[in-house]
Amino acid sequence: MRTRSVTITTTDDVRLEGRLAMPDGDPRGGVVICHPHPQFGGSMSSSLVPVIQRAVVARGWAALRFNFRGAGRSEGRYERGTGELKDAAAAVELLAQEIGDLPLAIAGWSFGSLVALAVAVSDPRIRAYAGIAPPVVMRHSVDLPPLPPPERLAAWTGRAVGICGTTDPYCTPKALEEWLGHIPGAQMQIFDGEDHFFSTSKGELAETVADFLVA
Hints:
It contains six helices and eight strands. The chain is of the alpha/beta class. The protein has a single domain (about 1-215), classed as Alpha/Beta hydrolase fold, catalytic domain (Rossmann fold), CATH 3.40.50. An eight-stranded mixed beta sheet has the order 1-2-4-3-5-6-7-8, sandwiched between helices. Helix 1 crosses helix 6 (about 200-215) and helix 2 (about 80-100) crosses helix 3 (about 110-120). The model has no long low-confidence stretch (mean pLDDT about 95).
């Protein structure tokens, strides 16, 4: 695996820090990974994010993780999900420039899963989406990106999976199933006994996400 630091510039001229990992051979596709809520300590170094990146690269795909505006060394400040959509879209654009016309996918954990979904259904190049523990139980009590309009969800032709643990207070299996009902053809994966951080199943979670995205 080859990694390097990259700078991502958004359409509103905010410079973000990122870490791009490439397989040893030519990549077969690329994945952007979005981190948890920056106001609650989320960053591209949050525990699951680099583990997922390594799992994706092990399958011969490039993977880009990055810090939303205001997190880490990224410029700007938190914008309640609106500016963060621009951040993720810019990350997709940079990755597309790096790998050319190869397939693209996107994943997100918690807050990042909501941002990733909005970007996925807005970009026809993205063929797969993985939402890890989307905070659907608390979406009305915290500033979070809204669900994309029904017509945009219905028009998207990519594959989607939602993943959560049975002891996650922010994403219960029942709430996740209801939320995924808005996404045509979405699959669901449940990790028995796991919480919002997949504390004992990080490796298994990462393998599940990577397998789905590169299929």
